[in-house]
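Predict fold of Diguanylate cyclase; 615 aa.
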Amino acid sequence: MSARVPLGQPSSGIEDLIARRELSAVFQPIIDFDEGTILGYEGLIRGPSGSRLEAPHALFAQAGAEGCAIALEREAARTCIEAFARLECEGKLFLNFSAGAIRALAEASESTLSLLRQSGVAANRIVIELTEQSAIPDIGSFLPIIRTLRASGAQFALDDYGTANASMNLWVRLQPNVVKIDRFFIHDIASDPLKFEAVKAMQHFANASGARLVAEGIENEADLIVVRDMGIGCGQGYFFGRPHAQPSRVVSDDAREAIRAHHIAVFPETTRTVGASPSGGMASDRMLVHAPALPREATNNDVLGLFNRLPDLHAVAVVENDEPVALINRRAFMDRYALPYHRELFGKRPCLQFANASPVVIEKSMTVEQMAKLLASDDQRYLADGFVITDNGKYAGLGTGEKLVRAVTEVRIEAARYANPLTFLPGNIPISSHIARLVSNEAAFYACYVDLNHFKPFNDEYGYWQGDEVLKFAAAVLADVCDPTRDFLGHVGGDDFLILFQSDDWHARALRAIQAFNEGAQRFYAPADRLAGGIHGEDRRGNPTFFGFVTMAIGGVRVKPDTDAALYTSEEIASVAALAKRRAKQEPSGFVLIDSDESEALIRGRVDSPGFIGG
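Predicted 3D structure, encoded as tokens:
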């Protein structure tokens, strides 16, 4: 009598499982955002229920160990196709295949097509997904295989793009119909600016190549709204449904409401306070002087000849193996050479005799902050001698102290338009961009301009360092009352902020910010000033005046989602909000809302207001 096999445990290997047809299929929906419907389903395989091979990763690991992975993939496809046909699901069926299994599938195209015909699933409803584990050593030989599959009517997709073997090379060479973005890039994309930038690059290339993107791993509404507003048309993940043998035939009410949500996403902003200029390129590019260098073996006569040929050259670098070893300043060299007999005595001697053997060297990738530290350092030789700029340690050119100061200043001013260097909040350019997105999408929102009363007298009395602490406190208070998925907070400059509210309870949030700031700001005063209720100072005309505590004022304007909203510019909307803020500064509550009729009249009248400039 044979021994009994424990319940739930397979009695033999993968091939026996296949022979006994013990595999089962589950399906996960893929959603079309534009239509709000199910585009199709990804078919996934499971081993015997309750066994150690139930999970697909264990199943395929065992198949790999037994050398029958391709056979398992083909059986998985057969099982998914037959189950899909029995369920009579609508839409497309997405099937996972390795490169080797796709090759085998194409070679057996007749048997595959026969299976499809027998199951009642048309070939044009099948999407073949190339899994990310599949390395293709010879892409050239793989192209005819893809053409064969497409000729049968099936479509081709890259799965889990952005990881492992799913590379840009494959995208360009194979030209897939569909590209599925790996869940790593989608999970928490609403709060991760680097993931957002990576997916934005994928979206840009998809538009150029004509591929349709599917965002995998969507698990919450915030990520869904960001993906939707980026223009990615399809999504998949637990938010829409887990893999199931009896998948839902319709999009759930919660998912449908999220897809059709009227508010638009607040895209995560990358802080732009280092190295690269916001408009592209490194800060060092602004001060690079392309200049010839001399080898270590050069003589002083060679230096003199170079300076005579290039009268505008302020210095010359001495290099060895393309790496700088010294710097010769023009003025110091020429002054020394003008002395009697110096040319005769020193002309044929090595140029290093009059060189600075430890010049200031700036690597091309140096950040703006590192350059600023150089400006503040005790070593100020660069002001007279200039300095050497290198690219990965190799000589690239020269720079001057004047160009260094100008480059740091220009990049900091430009960067501040993107992100405020004190609070790291988005600056005027992202603010304008977000208003334009709100308007173009006909989203209802409230533009609220925020200003601090009596901030200048406080700054004059306590100094800029303490004033900066108050501004950072104001930014923290405002950020705390905003919903980061709906409300956009920007720092216009100085003590001026702008919030673009889409939260339904925006009014309560604004009042909460005023209360929290007004209470918390008093801790920045000295005990005596707190007891006195403020500080003594001078007004703008120089008259002695008593100023109360720094307080917050918020002026709001409602922008309605109608067809005329497209006529409004970000400057006009900000201008009306700034007008509301000026009124709020006169109100004891610190809050004023300009109603819809007045705001529309002001905008249509092209109100004369400072826009993003605080007042």
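Confidence is low (pLDDT under 50) at residues 1-11, 271-281, 607-615.
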